[in-house]
Design goal:
This protein is mainly alpha-helical. It has helices at about 5-25, 30-40, 50-75, 80-100, 105-125, 140-155, 160-170, 175-200, 220-240, 245-265, and strands at about 210-215, 215. The chain has a two-stranded antiparallel sheet. α3 packs antiparallel against α8.
Length: about 270
Amino acid sequence: MNLWEVVLIYLAAGSVAGFLAGLLGVGGGVLIVPILMFVFTAQHFPDDHMIHIAIGTSFASIMFTSVSSLRAHQAHGAVNWSIVQRITPGILLGTLAGTFLVAKLPASLLKGFFIVFIFYVATQLLLNLRPKPKRQLPGTVGMIAAGGAIGLVSSFVGIGGGAMSVPFMTWSNVRMHNAIGTSAAIGFPLSVAGTIGYSLNGLAIKNLPEWTIGFVHLPSLAGLVVTSVLIAPLGARAAHKLPVEVLKKVFAIFLYVIGTKLLLTSI
């Protein structure tokens, strides 16, 4: 795989991830991580830390994507800042704690966890497994606990938390468009914590590829960010106009394909 092919793949991945972040509030990491792993494999990155680098780089890209996406959702009045303020302490604690735990896990176990998560997200989207609004948002302690759980799981898979925060908010009687917009805002502190954690935990690792800061690969980050920041607002606008349920099912099938490919390469 030559340099231009790699650059084009990064740009394409950033475009799709940015659009999905705005459209579905899923952060794009569920797509970025496997694409980075495929590209890193072609570039002969070390197997022992390939998925760690993919997840760390995914978090770094989501920092930029989430800002672009949340600005577009805010323009539609879809961000509930009260929820963001109350859940952020838990998000920061859970994500940071998770990165230190993940750094000690073998790559095979982390990859297996990610594959299971891909199939979970795909099934959730395909079957529209949306929890029915049965309660109201919890108090301060409950919001911190929910944020901690979302951050912890997200730290294992390099996502902006939308696959969990959106269902949590809809279950708590938050309207879907507000849940997606608020999820985009939550993705920023989550991705900042994830980026810091993966950067710090990778600093002591020897024999990582060139142009990395810990587990964050700067060349792939640049390629992802260039297009994702530009495309994310388009996804946010599309969320208010397009048949999102149909697009969710198409994306779900795509995730099943990616998850199956990752599984076959792990056997």
